Batch of 2 targets.
Target 1
Amino acid sequence: MNYEWERRYRVVLVHPSAGVNWSGGSEIFAIELAKRLGSYFDVELLSGAECGSFCHLAGGIPRVHAYDMVRHPLIAPLLHRFATHPEIVIEHLTSFLPCALRLLRRSADLIFPCNDYGGMAMAAFVRAIKGTPILFTEHVGLMGGGRSLSRNLRFRPDRLVVFSETVAAFAHSLRPSLPVSIIPNGVDLDQFTPEGTRIDFDLPKPVVLCVAGLKRNSHKRVELAMEAVARLPDASLLLCGDGIDRDYFQVLGDELLGSERFAIRSFSYEQMPKVYRSADAFTLPSIDEAFGLAYLEAMASGLPVVATDDEMRRYIVADGGILCDVSNPDTYADALTEVLSGWGQKPRLNALRFSWDAVALSYRDVILETIVQSKLELSVQTDKI
């Protein structure tokens, strides 16, 4: 089918951390989707750094660059009285005007903010002036009782995309007339594969991999994975990530597993395919995970998964691993032992359901519907005048 006529539609995605932070799911989402939507539209991604020919620098201070500044001992106590994540607030505030001016000077047919409430506020400001419709994907789901989604819906996106029926129902309870679509996240099946070069972690095999930000008392619940792997006499645990509590996790891991069976490493996003395929199983015992790109990347790389038994993980993991009560360390350890005994091709085959190309096709249709509906409504309003 020929889509040349669609190229007149200009779609602008927004994420001021894209290209700067390669560990965040929403940043990867914005880049991967922008790459593929370029086949159907005139696409621009307002990003924090160059990550493709489709990018334009958003301006402002990305949250990664503000991270050390807001944690300076002299100002951190003051800032944290006003915001849990002041580095994100700084990104939102400093990128608001540059992104808005770009969209006012070069009009879009649709704005697609991917950086939560900061992007939504900016897009709503532009829409008030230009009438540009807003598409928004809720990446946090119902974490924290749906506070993030409730806040974002106050900006009244013209269309919402969520990951599950449960989140869709919650959104409709708040805004019954809002068009809501359910579209999963995707994975690059050409990049994340079982075949290719590997990394020697210098750990006894089998190696269980966990990819997560290292922060105590977070929803990732990394401590549960550490306790479970500690019950396996021969397995090692590799924590891949970084965060403000890295030292805490290093000490805890050395206590539970010993330094010879435990390590914390940080890798660039380009190295992650090699990291996944070099491990023997993947686990992430998080709670209230809205989706979880790491599960897809692991399965696409051939790794069986052990994770929390909930609605979203049942959909994502399916027969690509085992879901269990990860709060019970013995049950959790038994599940890890079972997947390490051999899981065949099932993880990779399951990951094939989440190709980014297929996801982009679904977004293409949603974007077209949103733009066309917006133009129809504008036409009706003009006729009434």
Target 2
Amino acid sequence: MALKQQQELKQTQRLSPLQMQVIKLVELNTVEVEDRIKQEVEDNPALETGNDEPLNDPDENEQEKEDEITQDEIMLGDYISDEDIPDYHIGQRDRTNEQGFAEISYYDDQSLIDSLLEQLSLLNLDERRHTIATYIIGNLDENGYLQRELQAIADDLLFQQQLEVTPLQLEDLLYEIQELDPAGVGARNLQECLLLQLARKEPSAPVKLAEAILTDYFEAFSRKHFDKIIQQMNITPDDLRNAIEEITSLNPKPGNAVGGTLQTAMNNITPDFLVDTYNGQVTIHLNNSNIPNLKVNNSFYEMLKGYQENRESMSSDDKQAMLFMKQKVDSAKWFIDAVKQRQNTLLRTMEAIVNLQYDFFLNEDESQLKPMVLKDVAERTGFDISTVSRVSNSKYVQTNNGIYPLKYFFSEAMQTSEGEDISSREVKMILKDSIEGENPKRPLTDDQLTRILNEKGYLIARRTVAKYREQLNIPVSRLRKKM
């Protein structure tokens, strides 16, 4: 078989450094952008913060100027290899407040891990056991559970810390961690978590019965098979009711007891947008309180200009120095332009969301939220759906009454029996109210909830009711049953 050699002309599209930076910056929230800017300033000597206008490249007129990034190019970011993306790190933030807005942040007083490590330092552990216990604590999830197998942790310690430890030794240290506060922390499952909390209660008949139920009849209890428990334990319904009251007073997620209810979202939530309502008018601002102005370093610019004015007499080393400075100036300009485009993209997207949900922002009444999907915002902004998705992800907006994740405003559209479009959020509210008002001894099934919604004029199928119930973190009727 003969090999043939031929030429082929093929057109490919690759993203420029500017385009890649815009794509990445759009995905970041305000805090992450502040960190990115700080690191970029540290890494690039040609970039600095200040109030002056950015200086132009002295050779700019001889170059082909960068066109503003298009939405097609932003969408292409989904398919570009990670090898084509510049590597950037995270740093800290500057403190420039050009619009006069205060930074609104929600801080945990102390995270779960910090609290446990502080308590650990009070235990009488040698250096080796302290190192191992610290590693165990670092493997706890946000709810305070240890979800990893002890053997896997032992393997990690051997590989990463060169510490040889058996699962049995790890379990001994885990028992010491389980003595720390909050009660139930370090448990490997829900059953162990609840038993750890009961063990700290004052001994009483209901507490002892609760411990026996969780130890010997946990599966029956979790399935609400109360009749079976009464029969097999030979107790009265009142005895069971008192034991259940002890169990339901426990915290199934002890990690959330430290740092407040916002810990699972972020230890520090800073809104990306500020929406203010006054006298029936809604105004929108980007929260730029900690984002500094950026410019090309003036000294760097003057040095580069001097080199370019003496090109003919430059040595080889001088040419290499000029090339280095030229690359840094180009990189600085790309980053400055990327930050500007990022801000413009975010602001236009938020303006479209506010216009679509204007009634809600005027009154902040959840019932006034309209059906809205990514496509609706994309059509108003002219952006691609993938761009709107990037903006909406991990972003928050502060209003007069609170802080909302941007995804809060998106919901599916449904129709009533009269053909009126409504938000799925409205259906979820009715679903939640119906369940809260149900008879706890006879909770409503999904079929019954479907009939209730249909009678109210909402055309909805049973499978959709089940989906919305799960999204509201409401268990099935069998598990909602109470004595």
